[in-house]
Amino acid sequence: MTFRWLKPYMPRSLYGRAILILLLPVVTLLLVVSVIFIQRHFEGVTRQMTQAVSREVQVMAQSGMTVDEAATSDMARVLEITVEQIPENDVPKQDFRRWYDVTAIVVTREFNRLLPDVAAISLPDDYVVKLYFVRDGEAFELSFDRRRVSPSNPHQLLVNMLVFSILVTIVSYFYLRNQLRPITRLSRAAEAFGRGHNVPYRAAGAIEVRAAGNAFLNMRARIERQIEQRTMMLSGVSHDLRTPITRLKLGLSMLEAEDSELLQRDVLEMERLIEEFLAFARGAQEGVPEAVDPTEFLSEIVEDSARAGDKVKFVSHAGEGQVMLRKNAIRRAVSNLIGNAVRYGNHAEVSMKLTERMLRIRVEDDGPGIPADSREQAMKPFARLDVARNQDLGSGVGLGLAIAADIAHAHGGTLRLGESDALGGLRADIIIAR
């Protein structure tokens, strides 16, 4: 609960989270080992070496020799300490070290503790240490090799740790990628199937991933079998219903009764309602997905509707490219939206927007619209919103929006209803992810 602010900064993909899980322990281990090593090993070794050199410096300082004598003495040669007299003004006012020199902190602290009379300490580089003293009005400098007070190449262990950590991370990444690849393939197959595409997939990977893959394959096979059975049933029902309706129409056409025209109108209405029921039951499984230019496709649909007497026009389009669509299903969805628009309004406008991530098909009208709290209900099958949409303007069973929504969902998209800014009526958007 207290770490919710971190959520926007965390990776969202499975690969990103796996890499974070892999790198976080490695980086933490490096930091902990580095800190402990510097504090325990470097500091301890540096302290011991500095103490040894400080005793040698004390021996020379207490030998009673002058500066010139100490500079040429055998003791200085044996101890490898250079003694040089300098002007008192050349003595630094304070200790000097480079800001990133960690061991210099320990060296400076130990010399100041063990040599109370030292005036200043300078560690300008990795090669020399300089101690400054002022005695009896004389200033002199003692210098010796830096390696006598600091471990040589202290960075080697850290470099080795870093190099081998990177190597282990790379090896772990390739192994982890092989473990995550079956999950990614399963995700792509499930996403494609949700959009109406059937991509080849074979269960692989760890036992748990393989079990999930086999469960997906079984589920996909059952769904495809049910769709196939429903398609066959609908084909039979459609054929069996059209035959008696056709006989009724032929029989009514030969009647000379005054009300035969009304009976024929009822038969035509019954035929249209049956077609709507069959279209809803058929869903979005008409045809196979194919690459479609949405601009040309929507222009064709609008032209067909206009020739049928609908007051509709294709007003604008943005973006170019092709989208995988079931043409018959999308044609039915857009035609239903246009039919609803011109039924409850005077005219309709169709527009399209295509981006790298989605396709949006918009149908707007100048009718009464649908209240915001009733739009979700309007997309359910057999919904009839008498208050929002005047049912006297046209008959129906409330399947137009439901069919459009079902087709949008079958393409991995959605149907959204709103208020038209341009015409003031209903705005229906079919949004399909690419």
UniProtKB/TrEMBL annotation:
Catalytic activity: ATP + protein L-histidine = ADP + protein N-phospho-L-histidine
Record-linked SUPFAM superfamilies: ATPase domain of HSP90 chaperone/DNA topoisomerase II/histidine kinase, Homodimeric domain of signal transducing histidine kinase
Keyword Phosphoprotein: yes
EC number, as in UniProt: 2.7.13.3
InterPro entries hit by this protein: 2C_sensor_his_kinase, HAMP_dom, HATPase_C_sf, HATPase_dom, His_kinase_dom, HisK_dim/P_dom, HisK_dim/P_sf, Sig_transdc_His_kin-like_C
Domain HAMP: 177-228
GO CC aspect terms: plasma membrane
Gene3D superfamilies (alphabetical): 1.10.287.130, Histidine kinase-like ATPase, C-terminal domain
Domain Histidine kinase: 236-434
Cellular localisation: Cell inner membrane
Membrane topology term: Multi-pass membrane protein
Keywords tagged on the record: ATP-binding, Cell inner membrane, Cell membrane, Kinase, Membrane, Nucleotide-binding, Phosphoprotein, Transferase, Transmembrane, Transmembrane helix, Two-component regulatory system
Keyword Lipoprotein belongs to the record: no
Residue stretches spanning the membrane: 14-38, 157-176
Molecular-function GO terms, alphabetical: ATP binding; phosphorelay sensor kinase activity
Pfam assignment, any one: HisKA
Top-level taxon: Bacteria
Name used for this protein in its record: histidine kinase
Organism of origin: Roseovarius albus
